[in-house]
Amino acid sequence: MNKKIKFRVNGKRHEVEVPTNRMLIDCLRYDLGLTGTKEGCSVGVCGACTVLMDGDMISSCLTLAVMADGHELTTVEGLAKDGELNPVQKSFIQYGGFQCGICTPGQVVAATALLKENPKPNEDEIKDWMMGNLCRCTGYYKIIESIQKAHQFAK
Amino acid sequence: MDVPKVAKSLPGVDSVSKIDDTTYEGALTVRVGPIKLNLQGKIILEEQNKSDWRAALRAEAKDRMAAGAVNGKTIMNLKEISANMTELVVETDVNILGKIGEFGQPIIRKKADSMLKEFVENIKKQLSGK
Amino acid sequence: MIPFEYRTPKSLKEVHATLKEFGGDAKLLAGGTALVIMMKQRLVRPTCLVSLSAVRGLNGIEIKDGGLSIGGLATHRAVESSALVRRRLPMLAETYHHVATLRIRNMATVGGGLAHADPNQDPPPSLIALGATVKATSATGSRTLALDEFFKDYYETLLNPDEIITEVIVPKQAPNTGAAYIKFLPRTADDYATVSAAAVLTLDKTMKTIADVRIALGSVGVTPVRATAAEAVLRGQPLKAEAFAEAGEQAKQAVDPVSDFRGSAAYKTDMAAVFVRRALEKALADIRQQAKAKAAPKPKPAVKKAVKKGKRR
């Protein structure tokens, strides 16, 4: 059966009618055309599908779209403001925090949430927070460095 | 051997009906917490040896909602130990396929063990006439 | 996933009415992290999901009778980051921190996790060792269940289908009590344990005799297990170097692990002994550390980072 849901994504109001069994990631990608968020494992382990709901990281592959009704979502498309990349994104580019890029949307969203709570995390704090965002290419070194140095780009 | 009676000794068996002399159709419900499997399939009597007191059954069942399938073989042997003691030896080989097999290996194994224990208890009761 | 109805009742009364309407085919939804995976794999096929997200007042964390009262809908994240829990029962905050990843902890609830009853989970052994109880609420009223009797089988608890865990109560711990939870991680940090052990140790006034002890293990069977034989060799005994190792060996009696990719049954059994001993040692260290801190002149409290209050979903 279908349900009408109202929520904000990256600051913009949306009203969508979705079947109850639609996952949030599919709603974001197909109903709203926000294909930045990627589906890696479908079981909440890899972190590629990371989005923020009311500022907190969640797995959009394990969340039903109807569960987002009334909430505020941030996807990777919402990190840049007025065309300017956010500090995490700038740092990832500067310090090479990505290779193939498939895990990167999840990484930068997760890192953005981290920096909001802890603007200058040390390596252990970064590893603890980012532990659920897997990467097959980089070996994580550059991801950690990018996050550690992101404060350089903060205003 | 009364196949339906033996089959119904397995906990969760809902129905057993005869197709021909060696083939039966059955339905089995297995519950593990919130997970409920409705298995439907065939039971084939492969061997029935009255002089040896040995029987072999093969079963193939599929879950209606395609969460998986189960196939197994059971060999039952009655051995006389003394004038009033008979030993029942049950050998079972079960394969669990598909999602339930992949997801629930440890759970299913524990469940299968407890089901078989109950099966053997029920057979014992029937054979000892209690 | 098969189609289903989705309801968001605004009160417990409405929740119970909705459950009654759909009977056994409805399932309660809290954080959804366990349920949705099973639904995606078509292992569970409810005709209606009754979301608890709109029911207010069930996610608080507060002091109750000197102990803690945690609302059934409090998220794992809320418990791990609660200043109250970190101060009064740091072992519990650490335990909740061990669960999966932050994304899961932001959604998964305390009550939902217990109702899911996977024997590999982290919170149950710790809560059992702390002597916790749960309040289960149905349309006809509430009852209190001791957690060490709550788990019946893999994914099965004492809960009736229409019961909701509305509260988890951790009693006030006796003076000179230390607590520890140790998780033996097989491979990755976000995995379930190969074996885990929680120990809550209480010494008497002399600090030389074990007044009380509670030991619980996870990933060692179809439910979390309380190691009563291990407790028995310690309770009332003088504190001895070998005592903890002996208790570890006794703990092996309580376990019946399953062989899986996290370890063979034999290995898990051996490790149960090792980790019980380590948990007891850590609990003892906790008692000594607390005693030292009490005796020391009061320093200025460390400025803790402002922590976000747990969000309701």
Report on the structure:
The complex is a heterotrimer of chains A (155), B (130) and C (313). By secondary structure, chain A is α+β, with helices and mostly antiparallel strands. Helix content of chain A is 30%, strand content 17%. Chain A is built from 5 helices and 5 strands; from the N terminus they run ββαβββαααα. Chain B is of the alpha+beta class and 130 residues long. Chain B has one domain: START domain (Alpha-D-Glucose-1,6-Bisphosphate, Chain A, domain 4, 2-Layer Sandwich), CATH 3.30.530. Helix content of chain B is 27%, strand content 52%. In chain B, a hairpin with a 5-residue loop joins β4 and β5 (69-82). Chain B is globular and about 45 Å long. Chain C has 313 residues and is an alpha+beta fold. Chain C has helices at 12-22, 33-40, 76-81, 83-88, 90-97, 102-107, 110-116, 123-129, 228-232, 243-251, 265-295, and strands at 5-7, 26-29, 48-51, 61-64, 67-71, 133-138, 141-146, 151-153, 156-157, 164-170, 177-184, 195-203, 210-218, 225-226. In chain C, a hairpin with a 6-residue loop joins β13 (210-218) and β14. Chain C folds into 3 domains: 5-51, 2-Layer Sandwich (Uridine Diphospho-n-acetylenolpyruvylglucosamine Reductase, domain 2); 61-170, Uridine Diphospho-n-acetylenolpyruvylglucosamine Reductase, domain 3, CATH 3.30.465.10; 177-295, CO dehydrogenase flavoprotein, C-terminal domain (Enolase-like, domain 1, 2-Layer Sandwich), CATH 3.30.390.50. In chain C, the strands form 4 sheets. In chain C, strands 4-5-10-6-7 form a 5-stranded antiparallel sheet. In chain C, strands 11-12-13-14 form a 4-stranded antiparallel sheet. Chains in contact: A-C, B-C. Chain A binds chain C through residues 1, 3, 19-21, 23, 42-45, 47, 50, 53-59, 62-64, 66-67, 69, 71, 117-118, 129, 131-132, and chain C through 1-6, 8, 29, 32-33, 36-37, 39-40, 49, 51, 53, 77, 100-104, 106-107, 189-190, 305, 308, 311, 313.
Can you tell me the residue ranges of chain A where pLDDT is under 50 for at least 5 consecutive residues? none
Q: Please identify the structural class of chain A as seen in this structure.
A: alpha+beta
Mean pLDDT of chain B: 81
Share of β-strand residues of chain A = 15-25%
Say how many strands of chain A there are. 5
**What share of the residues of chain B lie within helices?**
25-40%
List segments of chain B where confidence is low: pLDDT < 50 over at least 5 consecutive residues: none
Biggest interchain interface, per-side counts: A-C, 31 and 31 residues
CATH-level-4 superfamily name of the largest domain in chain A: Beta-grasp domain
Compute the number of strand runs of chain B. 6
Topology of chain A as a string of helices (H) and strands (E):
EEHEEEHHHH
User: What is the overall pLDDT average of chain A?
Assistant: 97
Number of helices of chain B: 2
Distance between the termini of chain A: 47 Å
Radius of gyration of chain B: 15 Å
Largest sheet of chain B: 6 strands, antiparallel
Structural class of chain B: alpha+beta
Q: How much helical structure, as a percent, in the residues of chain A?
A: 25-40%
Largest sheet of chain A: 5 strands, mixed
Estimated share of beta-strand residues of chain B: over 45%
CATH architecture of chain B: 2-Layer Sandwich
